[in-house]
Amino acid sequence: MDWDHLRYFLELARAGRLIIAARRLGVDHTTVSRRVQALEKQVGQALFLRTTDGYALTEAGRHLLPAAESMESAYTAIQDLQPSASGQLTGQVRVGATEAYGSLLLARHLTKLAQQYPHLKVDLLALPRALQLSRNEADIVITLERPEKGPFIITRLTDYELRLYASPSYLAQHAPIRTKEDLKNHRFVTYVDDLLFSKELDFLAELVPASHGSWRSTSVLAQQEAVAAGAGIAILPAFAAERDARLVSVLATEVSFTRTFWMLMPTELRGLARMRATWEFLREQADLDQALLAGVAV
Hints:
single chain; 298 residues; alpha/beta; Arc Repressor Mutant, subunit A; D-Maltodextrin-Binding Protein, domain 2; 2 domains; two-stranded antiparallel ribbon; 11 helices; 22% strand
């Protein structure tokens, strides 16, 4: 039995949709279909049923699945014994992350990953919204909220700090800020309430209960630009704002928030060498970024 056919069978069984299996393998969806059809011809039975939601395993497919997974585990173990195996990773990995972390840190890190593994195709989804593993939007997700349940591998990736920032021009034109009480007299740049994708970002109400923000955006990077232009004060990730010479910290010793990034991956993907390599790489990079994430000048 052709192992390459089985690889395509496994990806389609896990993804449930041709286009997602094709993305993960780094091929066209017609290639996945052709490989699966060739495998079905070899075994003499249909392995999938086409449904409105995608592809579901037939009884023959369910019987084949554990054997194919055993072959995958053996193949992976053999790959791990080869000194040059790390440079031969192929297929595609899609990483989803929050907008600022993805744009300002992961973009640089994943460039290093792609250079280290030249045959690996890397997608970065840096978006101001939560990405859903259950919908196969990404293979690995870095998020602010730890899911209570689900077939996921979960690790606490890193903590990061957020603080108040403003532009020098804004501070020069408005009442001085010496205590948290003084903040009630100032304009704030913040998120759009009804489009806030994580409750972990709802910290302004805790700081200034009477304020809902006078300038709002779904994008934290847009908020940072607005603050730099003098729109008001905002709570921004220190790893972004501390590197922006247009901003100064406000009440740095009195006001700070700590949030946590969690990294998730479907358990069904943990046996894939490219997923394991990406997972470990992202953990290493987060460790190296600890000072920056804490808002310490480096």
